[in-house]
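Tokens for chain A. Residues wanted.
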């Protein structure tokens, strides 16, 4: 049977991963967080001191990125090592945004991502899922929110994990810088697919946002 694919794209901090995970659980689909794959590459490049594009390209052939699910949660592996707990730092975020602008890095992950969506029904989140990775996805959602709100949510998250790491102003500056980097790159820039439904979560809490996403899926999938 053909798998059902739901593509969710949008800027960082719009609630993509939390909402995509919840949506996948509700529909009985597998959640695929493609940002974690870019983060795993970024982490490995930092570890290997591969900074220039040339060094990164040279390091790619002996890098293997894979996903496995432990108790239903996605874990990302770089050459067999579980790096999931190491890829959520501000440093890795910035580097992930930079490495994801390199065409060879995107090509490196494209087939793996398409294969995952072919084998099973997925909710896949990222920046170019509806536009490039899964242009025939059954549902395409562009999830967004005002930059200030996204920065505030990210700052709260950081405060819970490690209080005092970054000020709200620094987080906002990072969000704006990363949005710009992701939206203006030449290859697969962040933008809504023509047939995507835009969902704005600026004034919605998690539960309301989840219901908005589920309503779009219900309509498109005739549930
Ligand atoms: O969603 P995230 O913050 O974990 O993503 C990390 C970086 O990876 C982000 O700056 C953009 C990039 N990315 C991408 O270019 N394409 C994707 N499909 C997913 C993430």
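Reply:
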């Amino acid at each position: 049977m053909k798998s059902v694919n739901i593509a969710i794209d949008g800027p960082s901090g719009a609630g993509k991963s939390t909402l995509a995970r919840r949506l996948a659980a509700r529909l009985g689909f597998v959640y695929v967080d493609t940002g974690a794959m870019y983060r795993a590459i970024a982490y490995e490049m930092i570890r290997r001191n591969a900074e220039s594009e040339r060094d990164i390209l040279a390091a790619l052939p002996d890098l293997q990125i894979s996903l496995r699910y432990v108790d239903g949660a996605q874990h990302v592996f770089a050459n067999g090592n579980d790096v999931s707990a190491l890829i959520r730092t501000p440093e890795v975020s910035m580097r992930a945004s930079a490495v994801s602008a390199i065409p060879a890095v995107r090509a490196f992950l494209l087939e793996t991502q398409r294969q995952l969506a072919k084998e099973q029904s997925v909710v896949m989140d990222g920046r170019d899922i509806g536009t490039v990775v899964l242009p025939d996805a059954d549902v395409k959602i562009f999830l967004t929110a005002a930059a200030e709100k996204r920065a505030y949510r990210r700052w709260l998250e950081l405060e819970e994990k490690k209080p005092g790491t970054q000020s709200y102003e620094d987080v906002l500056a990072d969000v704006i810088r990363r949005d710009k980097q992701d939206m203006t790159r030449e290859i697969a820039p962040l933008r809504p697919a023509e047939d995507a439904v835009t969902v704005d979560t600026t004034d919605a809490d998690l539960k309301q946002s989840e219901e908005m996403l589920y309503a779009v899926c219900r309509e498109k999938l005739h549930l």
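Residues 103-119 form the longest helix (17 residues). DSSP finds nine helices and eight strands in the chain.
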